[in-house]
Design a protein that fits this description.
Layout: H1 2-29, H2 33-39, H3 41-52, H4 56-76, H5 83-91, E1 95-101, E2 106-108, E3 111-121, E4 124-136, E5 146-151, E6 154-155, H6 167-173, E7 178-184, E8 188-191, H7 204-224, H8 227-238, H9 246-254, H10 265-285, H11 289-292, H12 295-313, H13 318-335, H14 342-356, H15 364-378, H16 380-383, H17 388-399, H18 403-441, E9 443-444, H19 448-477, H20 479-506, E10 510-511, H21 517-532, H22 538-567, E11 572-576, E12 585-588, E13 594-597, H23 609-620, E14 628-630, H24 636-639, H25 642-648, E15 654-655, H26 664-675, E16 686-688, E17 691-697, E18 699-702, E19 709-712, E20 726-731, E21 734-738, H27 744-752, E22 764-766, H28 778-784, E23 788-791, H29 804-812, E24 816-819, H30 820-823, E25 826-830, E26 836-840
Parallel strand pairs: 4-7, 13-14, 14-15, 21-22, 22-23, 23-24
Antiparallel strand pairs: 1-3, 1-5, 2-3, 3-4, 5-8, 6-7, 9-10, 11-12, 11-25, 12-13, 16-17, 17-20, 18-19, 20-21, 25-26
Length: 845
């Protein structure tokens, strides 16, 4: 019977792995259900042929992989909205939306967010799941509450940039159909039962109860622990984000322990272990109960719903749900006397999550948590020092001489085994997840082993159990009962914050380029093979070590080849990034020199394209330093993302027109540049790699004292838009004109540069001011005579750019119009022979 269970467990692991591989292939290939059905006969025929030859395992794997490909392609397709909802989204008008809350509001970096089920739209029945962002305030709502909000509904449409993850995939994985936003929490109206004609489903009672418990536990923590330690307890114990100091997050990142700032799988494991072990001992201590019920099995059955409820209380993050499912399967095995391996529990948990949403495989926390658990299950037993034989032999040899010495030696060896096992776990998890962290975040934390060794035991063994236990006692029995445990948790939290601050000040964080998906997989598997070769026999070590060397060599070689190809690329490559309603463009010159022109941004600061678009794009391209950063003018949609870039990249110079635009954020940008030692010279003619960068305006003239001076500067009375720094990049007889947000007066000045011998005509024009009616005058277009016009703007932006008459003006002149809202990021390539080509992430139609 046991062998049959093991056989079924191995097949479950095989099926789950093949299914996950199929989903990953589908996402990487951006497959559609139609394309999958076209090629479906090939794997079906192959599986049939393998089955006829009794190769059942391979046949089952191919079938599971094919099913995964179809599941991924199907999940990638946006869900069809009802005609009434689609019409409202297309009209871009404000509507009255009513529904019931799906999840309790969560604090985010840019305000707060919640999900609600749309039930009525302007009084008409309509069904969809909406993610509602609140710029200011935290709504006092619980799951199941009915609400009314007046807002614009936006479809799920991410930003399309090469090498950057699409946020639309993450939204679809969470089941989001629409987005909406309000300025403040008081814009949301909570409805009474008498005001609505719909009710929340019964299952929301559980979520509502969990949210209330979470609120009560938070109040119990606040009664005893305050300040930064209290905020940390809310984060680590309850999964609540309450505006952690950015320096705290920087410290934990430098220590490689950011996972302790959320309720991760490790938190849940610590809580489950303490609960299960304590409950088992308590049941075993009850007289005569072990005669009727096996304490271990009973504790396992009771622990399963407790773990599930704690998962609900802490917000049901992907990593927590995965751990809860794993522990649930493992505890169920204990309860029925079928103790399966860790790999079987992992496979079962992953299978359930993939069945719930195949797109969960694209979630960063899911990937990190699965790889971490696989490393713990497969590598730590091999790396951790053995101790049973040594303890036993040492005890036997010393027992006859001194029993006290034997006990001390046994305790010492057990402590050494525990420390060795923890060190092995830190090394295994750190090495196997480092490529994934580098892929997504472009950074390496060399102090992570030491940081985890200091912080993880402190948080997982003291902060989380004591904080949770004290909060439960304080919420149920009163403050006095929870005070001792919460006080201890507060002390431990302060110690953890002090350690994180030490790492922030002294531990390095290496910012690197990002490996692609193939390189990341090869590096992770290569490091895993390298660790797996430890303590093997000579023959086994040779085979596994050779596989590790080959994988690591291939990955590093691929990264080296890509970097050489970038540096030796003879073309001028200009990429207009899709940053929403704003501007950002990267100029890559032959020889590797790079210029970033603007960084995108939002007026309310709700989205940082520097962190989510520009930096990931640069690191994916292998760019770790910039020769110049250019700010056309100090408006938020051009400047907001540059703060991140100046603080995370070495920059040789910062160019601006000198106009502050009466914007304090511009002065902050300059102070950040000075703090980093970045010079801010007046823009002048600059040549690199055969590319000539020529400033065309705004120019200021000074004839005081008989001296004549003309250079980049802002004439008195010029508006912020017309004071935009205009640059022209020329290469191989072609040119690209970057115009910022100049309007009619600024365009007139650019035309006037022709009178002093400067060339204005360009093959590619970055359309001024996103296609507004105040720009792109007929005289300006006649002077520039572009062949391609690129409009950088947001999808269905609130300014209604571009104006239809402006688009018609370009098309009447035979200019090819490309738009980042429709085409995604637009890449213009100019070869040394002058051949110009354009590519777009969403196609250049």
């Amino acid at each position: 019977m046991a062998s049959r269970w093991r056989k079924h467990g191995v097949r479950l692991i095989w099926w789950t792995g093949a299914l996950a591989l199929g989903v990953a292939i589908s996402l990487l290939a951006d497959a559609t259900p139609a394309s999958v059905m076209i090629v479906a006969p090939l794997p079906v025929l192959l599986a049939f042929w393998l089955a006829r030859n009794r190769r059942w395992v391979l046949a089952e794997g191919i079938v599971a992989c094919a099913i995964g490909v179809y599941m991924g392609a199907r999940a990638m397709q946006p869900r069809a909205l009802a005609p009434a909802i689609a019409a409202v989204v297309d009209s871009d008008r404000r509507v009255v939306a009513e529904g019931w809350v799906l999840s309790a509001p969560e604090i985010a970096d840019d305000g707060s967010r919640l999900r609600f089920s749309l039930e009525r739209l302007d009084g008409v029945a309509a069904r969809a799941t909406v993610a509602l962002s609140v710029a200011s305030g935290l709504p006092d709502l619980l799951p199941g509450d009915a609400l009314r909000v007046t807002a614009r509904l936006r479809s799920v449409r991410g930003l399309a940039n090469p090498g950057v993850a699409d946020s639309a995939t993450r939204a679809r994985a969470a089941g989001i159909d629409l987005f909406a936003g309000v300025g403040a929490s008081d814009a949301i109206v909570r409805l009474d039962d008498s005001d609505i004609g719909f009710r929340a489903p019964v299952f929301t009672i559980v979520f509502r109860w969990a949210a209330r418990v979470r609120r009560d536990l938070g109040r119990a923590i606040d009664q005893v622990v305050g300040g930064g330690a209290g905020v940390f307890l809310h984060t680590a114990v309850l999964g609540e984000r309450r505006g952690n100091d950015p320096r705290v997050e920087d410290g934990f990142r430098a220590a490689g322990a950011t996972h302790v700032l959320s309720v991760s799988g490790l938190h849940l494991a610590a809580v489950a272990l303490v609960f299960f072990a304590g409950l088992r001992r308590a049941l075993a201590a009850i007289p005569r109960l072990p005669l009727w019920v096996e304490p271990r099995a009973a504790a396992a059955l009771i622990a399963i719903p407790a773990i599930g409820f704690y998962t609900l209380v802490t917000g049901s993050a992907i990593a927590t749900v995965r751990s809860a499912l794993m522990m649930g399967f493992a505890l169920m095995g204990i309860a029925i006397g079928r103790r399966g391996g860790a790999l079987v529990a992992i496979a079962a948990a992953v299978l359930v999550l993939l069945a719930w949403s195949p797109l969960v495989i694209s979630d960063i926390s899911f990937q990190l948590s699965v790889i971490s658990v696989l490393a713990l299950a497969m590598l730590v037993p091999r790396l951790a020092p053995g101790g049973k034989a040594k303890v036993g032999s040492l005890t036997a040899s010393t027992a006859s001489t001194d029993g006290t010495d034997a006990v001390a030696a046994t305790r010492f060896l057990r402590s050494r085994r525990w420390l060795g096992g923890f060190a092995a776990a830190t090394v295994a998890v750190g090495l196997t997840t480092a490529p994934l962290v580098t892929h997504y975040f472009g950074e390496i934390t060399p102090a992570a082993p030491l940081g985890n060794l200091l912080l993880v035991p402190l948080v997982e063994m003291i902060v989380v159990p004591c904080g949770l236990g004290g909060a439960v006692l304080g919420a149920t029995l009163g403050r006095v009962w929870g005070w001792p445990l919460l006080t201890l948790a507060g002390w431990a939290a302060r110690a953890a914050l002090a350690i994180a601050e030490f790492f922030r000040c002294h531990a390095p964080v290496w910012l690197t380029r990002s490996p692609n998906a193939f390189e990341t997989a090869a590096l992770s598997i290569g490091f895993a093979c390298l660790l797996a070769s430890v303590r093997r026999s000579a023959s086994g070590r040779g085979a596994v070590g050779a596989a590790a060397a080959m994988l690591l060599a291939v990955a590093l070689g691929s990264m080296g080849v890509r970097d050489l190809a970038r540096r030796w690329n003879p073309n001028l490559v200009v990429t207009f990034l899709d940053v929403g309603q704003g501007d950002a463009a990267l100029v890559q010159m032959p020889g590797g020199a790079t210029i970033l022109i603007d960084g995108g941004g939002t007026y309310d600061g709700s989205f940082d394209p520097g962190a989510w678009v520009v930096e990931p794009f640069l690191r994916a391209r292998g760019i770790t330093r910039l020769d110049a950063v250019v700010l056309s003018h100090p408006h938020p949609d051009h400047m907001g993302g540059l703060h991140r870039i100046l603080n995370r990249f070495p920059v040789s110079r910062l160019w601006t027109s000198g106009d502050d635009g009466h914007n304090p954020d511009y002065l902050l940008l300059l102070s950040e540049a000075r703090a980093r030692g970045i010079p801010t010279p007046v823009p002048v003619l600059w040549e690199a790699g055969g590319v000539v960068i020529e400033p065309l305006g705004p120019f200021v003239t000074n004839r005081a004292g008989g001296d004549f001076f003309e250079g980049i500067g802002v004439p008195e009375g010029t508006t912020v838009n017309d004071a935009s720094l205009v640059l022209r990049a020329g290469f191989a007889g072609r040119s690209v004109l970057f115009t910022g947000d100049i309007e009619a007066n600024g365009e007139g000045e650019i035309r006037g540069r022709m009178d002093v011998g400067q060339t204005v005509a360009s093959d590619v024009l970055k359309v001024p001011h996103h296609g507004s009616r105040t720009s792109s005058s007929l005289e300006f277009l006649d002077a520039v005579r572009p062949g391609v016009a690129v409009m950088s703007l947001g999808w269905r932006n609130r300014f209604h750019f571009p104006r239809p008459e402006i688009v018609k003006r370009y098309r009447d002149r035979g200019v090819r119009v490309l738009r980042t809202d429709l085409n995604g990021a637009v890449t213009i390539t100019i070869a040394p022979d002058g051949v110009l080509s354009a590519t777009c992430v969403r196609g250049c139609r």
